[in-house]
Specification:
Blueprint (H helix, E strand, L loop, with lengths): L1 H34 L20 H7 L5 H20 L2 H12 L38 H12 L7 E7 L3 E5 L6 E3 L9 E3 L7 E4 L3 E3 L15 E6 L4 E9 L12 H6 L4 E5 L5 E15 L3 E10 L6
């Protein structure tokens, strides 16, 4: 009985001292927190607080969102400016510049008026100013039409609607699995081999998007094409001309080969114009191929333009 009371007293003593010890630790931490620098905050506890912008569109941009109405109006403004720049004469541009930018021409203004750059050209350069230039007096739209006529193929009389560049865009580094493929070597113990990592270290995205019947084919015409010409055949029918540099040696591909079947195995073609609008064409048939200016082989397809494509 005596030992029982001794154990009870010892247990009570330890329990009370443990409680007081925990209270002391809590009070110490509270005191340290009150005396701490309020600006010394852990990164995990930091919060960014800002006042919402009065402009609803800018507030969306701050939040990483897009505004469909703003984007549409922005592209409409670009179209109007582009039409003005292309169709205006040097005189029209000079009048608009004088009206909106307040240039004084040759009145001798020291900062803007009659100042020249390091090559002796005036800052007020409206269009093709040089009278000796072959396009002197023409508008940009007229010059673009002349250049389109010079670049088009001459084997038909169809109207050339547009020329699209297919220069690839660098979009990042390749995935490690993209440089590993099954080997076709005989008498080897390994099934896969690593390709040249430096040669395939970057990924590229082509502006021309093609939808194939078989997406697993190796030879794709959109990856060989340098330019795409669109010609008007009828109200909705178009002729699509893929300009392939001769260095790819597609001229040696016969019409009966598997490579030819893969290159012509196209269901749809999608491209974006300079205003971001998506244009689509459903391919109906392959027409022919020709050599153009000893620099490109042109593969021609017939297609139907799709309507109501979104931005």
């Amino acid at each position: 009985m005596k030992k029982f009371f001794q154990k009870l007293i010892l247990y009570t003593y330890i329990k009370i001292h443990t409680i007081f010890l925990n209270i002391g630790i809590i009070l110490y931490r509270a005191e340290e927190s009150m005396e701490a620098d309020p600006n010394n905050v852990r990164e995990a506890d930091k919060k960014i607080i800002r006042k919402r912008h009065r402009n609803a569109v800018l507030e969306k941009f701050y939040a990483g969102q897009s505004d469909e109405k703003y984007v549409k109006e922005y592209y409409e403004l670009l179209k109007k400016a582009d039409v003005f720049m292309r169709k205006s004469t040097p005189y029209d541009l000079a009048v608009a510049t004088d009206k909106h930018l307040r240039f004084w021409g040759d009145k001798g203004d020291a900062e803007r008026g009659n100042k020249k750059d390091q090559y002796g050209r005036r800052y007020e350069h409206y269009g093709f100013f040089d009278e000796k230039h072959k396009h002197a007096g023409k508008t940009i739209a007229e010059v673009l039409e002349l250049e389109k006529e010079e670049r088009r193929t001459k084997d038909d009389d169809y109207e050339l609607l547009g020329i699209f560049s297919n220069k690839p865009i660098e979009v990042g580094l390749t995935n490690i699995m993209d440089v590993v493929e099954k080997t076709n070597k005989k008498n080897v113990d390994f099934e896969y081999e690593v390709l040249d990592v430096f040669r395939k270290s970057k990924q590229f995205e082509f502006p021309i998007k093609a939808i194939h019947n078989d997406e697993n084919i190796a030879n794709k015409i959109e990856q060989l094409t340098e330019f795409l010409h669109i010609k008007k055949i009828g109200f909705e029918h178009r002729q699509l001309e893929f300009f392939i540099p001769l260095k790819f040696k597609t001229s040696g591909v016969t019409d009966q080969s598997d490579i030819f079947k893969e290159l012509t195995d196209i269901k749809e073609i999608f491209i974006r114009d300079e205003y971001g609008e998506l244009i689509g064409y459903g391919i109906t048939k392959f027409i022919k191929r020709i050599i153009h200016n000893d620099t490109h082989e042109v593969w021609k397809f017939q297609g139907i333009e799709m309507r109501n494509m979104s931005i």
